[in-house]
Amino acid sequence: MVKFEDLSKYRGELMGLAILFVILFHIGMPQSNFFYPLRRLGNIGVDMFLFVSGMGLWFSWTRSRLGKKLDGNGAMGIRQATIRFFKHRYKRIYPVWIIVASVFYIGKYVEAPGSGYSPDIPNLIANVLFNWSFWRIDDLTFWYVPATMMLYIFAPGYMELVRERPSYRWLPVAFIILAAMVRYVPLIHNSVGHLEIFFSRIPIFFIGINAGKWVMEKRTLEKGSIWMIVIIFAMSLWLCLQLEYIGHRRFPLFMERIVYIPLTVTALLLECKLIAVMPKNINRVLTMLGTISLEIYLIHIQFVMLPLQQYKLGYCVTALLVIVISTPVAYLLHWIIEKVMGCRVFRILQ
């Protein structure tokens, strides 16, 4: 039997696996390597984050609107719930973002004034505040963070809409069409085509929100459904690998990112089955990695991986070192921010 509630039960472990996939995707590997296409599939770690994040948002929003026990007691109005939503979401992201973005973008500006990242002071300030260079020139240095913050802006409206009008849960289909339009309609492509990586990830985020309802209601699929999930997973995996073996530059990335949608959903459900039988110590490690996944994401490329790659240690050694070095640094940063945000002055400000 497939239990959708397992997606919530193992949320921490799933996010831990997702950040490991992202790290393995970022480590350099020659395209001639037989495992290069498999390494490329680590890209679905981003889709896993977005799906699980969307799922969690549905829990938070529903409990705000209906009360913690969903019985109306303690229910908030839309305005109050929306304020609470943004306060909680950005409180998690913004402190660590401001620290890392300041170190990186100010450092790059001092090192090379007028560079592509920040050609002037206003652009530098905008980069530190919300990674303006991602929206301006498709700067992928920390793209997941500004993309997520943008998706958060539309999440409350979407969740309230589908709560009142369930038929609008089909909107992710429209978002898939929008992603195709960004890729293939010249007028749209010429305007925002450089943000294809963002538009092609919008559907999985809102599908995650939709799935949150199934998770909250503890819905299940009959026992034999596992084979349907395995078949869809295998088909999606095979197609993605085929596209990569054909050649990374010979097809629009949009095609593969859309296939990531069924691959991500089925992979998460199968991972839940695997996590359920894994040793508890491994689960604890994955949960810890999931807890500090934002910090690991922001640290591991620019501050750990790129300096290590100059030593040409090979894929496996570099990947291991990136994980081993990034994890304690990320944990320390997470701990410091938690302590600072929990101090009396910040509690008063909040």
TrEMBL record:
InterPro entries associated with the record? Acyl_transf_3_dom (IPR002656), Acyltransferase_3 (IPR050879)
Pfam families registered for this protein in UniProt = Acyl_transf_3
Record-level GO cellular component terms: membrane
Transmembrane segments in this chain: where? 12-29, 41-61, 93-110, 141-161, 168-185, 197-215, 227-246, 258-278, 285-306, 312-337
GO BP term, pick one: polysaccharide biosynthetic process
Which GO-annotated molecular functions does the record name?
acyltransferase activity, transferring groups other than amino-acyl groups
* Origin: domain of life: Bacteria
Keywords noted in UniProt: Membrane, Transmembrane, Transmembrane helix
Q: Does the keyword Metal-binding apply?
A: no
The Acyltransferase domain extends over: 16-335
Q: Does the keyword Membrane apply?
A: yes
**UniProt protein name:** Acyltransferase 3 domain-containing protein
Instruction: Give the source species.
Output: Prevotella pectinovora
Native organism taxonomy:
Bacteria, Pseudomonadati, Bacteroidota, Bacteroidia, Bacteroidales
